[in-house]
Design goal:
Elements lengths: L29 H8 L5 H9 L22 H14 L12 H15 L4 H13 L7 H11 L18 H13 L7 H11 L18 H13 L16 H7 L18 H12 L29 E3 L12 E3 L57 E2 L7 E3 L6 E5 L2 E5 L2 H8 L4 E4 L1 H5 L14 E4 L5 E5 L2 E5 L2 H11 L5 E3 L8 E4 L1
Parallel strand pairs: 3-7, 4-7, 8-11, 10-12
Antiparallel strand pairs: 1-2, 4-5, 5-6, 8-9, 9-10
Helix pairs in contact: 1-11, 2-3, 2-11, 3-4, 3-5, 4-5, 5-6, 5-7, 7-8, 7-9, 9-10, 9-11
Length: about 500
């Protein structure tokens, strides 16, 4: 029995596949990957094969994906294809025959008006819209988050729908959705949710759902994904019982053919979906599997605001693809200006600094920023394109047919998530080409973060932070920022999503 998902097609939409770096040295389950490649594709298998590195992906079947008003749980019906299409790296607004993102938003609002929206759909709305590149302050995402916050049960969990008992699967999903909204695992709301989940762990190390007390593959896979999302290790004593850990329990359900049983000895009437979820969880993944970058159409131009008094941070563009030079200028000259001897004002552009033109405004939340870092694309290869069989540690590596770049360190591969981090941390360090089988055999480690000394600005809140010692120090006032500009000659401000800031501990500057 598939518990809370009511044994209908909606069950497909509750088992999304995770992604990203981990703490517990997860690995690729090749037996599961082979089984999924031989199965009829759906959006869960697509997400799983992306996480398992079985590229290139075939997603033509998703071009006919649709969702329509009148579908049962229409939000969930839209969310599934969105998560599959974004796993392909495609835009769900244009890839299929309908704009799935617009449909999801419209159906969410309709269900709210009709009073039929479920907590499970609120979770899926957040995960799908974030996967589609929508910002954390998107109106539907904020409404879904508020709905979840207002309907958390007293035991800390969330139910499939308001009025039902708390469910392990939905609660694990909700924790991951809240993380996408910038919440951290030490937030009291999520602490209660995580503690609820721990109460549903059995002696065998697995987790059970709301309908019975027997450990099952789906619930356990969801919880493992959540554990990785909150940057914890599912194989430590904190997440283990006398009979083992969630990982050992889930592995015990795999058959010789590669698919996973729902419960031990019970078989599975949805083996493909369960295997996709289990394979991805064991590989250290979490939700959403992949997020695309989306730039909405530019709004009509507004009249330029008057310049604010005081220091103006200017980023002149160079017109070249390599970025422009940067300089910090004093206020516009008055009649009969005197030559300034202020050494804190940098008048000569520094070479090789990639910045973009911005407008200075009088509020801290509108400090000029550099354009958001884009994912790594076609990194430069120094020297001949050689394929190395045994790359050294502390080496940058990639495969010939995948754009992802990794740092090999301490026996693990650490993903470099965007080109700006690659440039700031490694400059012109050569990137070595390796065989996919070599890279697949290396366990994943934590992703590479921005280096100390850079300044990050949150897209959603406008807050500015300096990174020092792996922590983020908030610049609390405009005056403090201007003082830093004068004394440290700051010429780069990097705009990031709030969810990307949760990996840095917070301190006041």
């Amino acid at each position: 029995m598939r518990s809370k998902f009511f044994l209908i097609a909606i069950s497909l939409f509750f088992l999304i596949c995770p992604f990203n770096s981990t703490l517990a040295a997860p690995g690729k389950n090749q037996l599961a990957a082979d089984y999924l490649k031989a199965s009829e594709p759906n959006y869960w298998t697509t997400q799983a094969l992306y996480k398992l590195g079985e590229l290139p992906l075939s997603g033509d079947y998703l071009r006919s994906a649709t969702c329509a008003e009148g579908d049962y749980a229409a939000v969930a019906v839209c969310a599934g294809p969105i998560l599959g299409i974004t796993a392909l790296g495609e835009d769900p607004r244009t890839f299929a025959s309908v704009n799935l993102v617009d449909n999801l938003v419209n159906f969410y609002n309709s269900e709210v008006t009709a009073g039929t929206i479920t907590l499970n759909e609120a979770v899926l709305a957040i995960l799908a819209l974030r996967a589609a590149g929508e910002p954390a302050d998107n109106q539907t995402i904020v409404a879904a988050k508020d709905y979840l916050l207002n309907n958390q049960n007293a035991d800390g969990g969330w139910a499939f729908a308001v009025g039902f008992g708390s469910d392990t699967d939905v609660t694990a999903m909700a924790v991951m959705a809240m993380m996408e909204e910038g919440m951290t695992s030490d937030d009291p709301v999520l602490v209660k949710a995580i503690n609820f989940i721990k109460t549903n762990q059995n002696d065998d190390g697995g987790f059970h759902g709301v309908w019975d007390n027997i450990s099952n593959a789906n619930s356990t896979a969801w919880v493992i994904s959540m554990i990785y999302k909150i940057r914890q290790d599912p194989e430590t004593v904190d997440w283990s019982q006398a009979g083992g850990s969630p990982v050992t329990f889930l592995n015990s359900l795999q058959t010789l053919d590669g698919w996973f049983e729902y419960q031990l000895g019970a078989g599975n009437f949805l083996p493909v979906d369960t295997t996709a979820q289990a394979g991805i969880a064991l590989a250290g993944g979490y939700y959403p599997v992949r997020k695309i970058t989306y730039s909405p159409p530019a709004p009509p131009a507004l009249p330029a605001p008057l310049p604010s008094p005081g220091m103006i941070l200017s980023f002149p563009s160079s017109g070249g693809s390599g970025g422009g030079s940067s300089q910090i200028q004093s206020p516009p000259p008055q009649p009969e200006p005197q030559k300034s001897n202020d050494k804190s004002v940098e008048s000569n552009p520094q070479p090789n600094q990639e910045v973009s033109e911005v407008v200075s405004e009088p509020a801290l939340t509108s400090i000029p920023v550099e354009s958001t870092a884009e994912p790594v694309n076609q990194p430069k290869i120094i020297g001949q394109m050689l394929v190395f069989q045994n790359p050294n540690q502390n080496t940058l590596v990639k495969t010939a047919n995948d754009q992802a770049v990794y740092l090999l360190e301490a026996g693990r591969k650490r993903w470099v998530p965007n080109e700006l981090i690659l440039k700031l941390r490694f400059g012109s360090t050569p990137i070595i080409i390796v065989e996919p089988t070599i890279l697949d055999a290396i366990p994943e480690g934590l992703e590479v973060l921005y280096p100390d000394g850079v300044y990050l600005r949150s897209k959603e809140t406008g807050r500015i932070y300096q990174l020092r010692g792996g922590k983020k120090y908030q610049i609390m006032t405009l005056a403090a920022w201007q003082r830093l500009v004068r004394t440290e000659r700051i010429s780069r401000l990097i705009q990031v999503e709030e969810a990307d800031l949760v990996w840095y501990a917070w301190e006041k500057h």
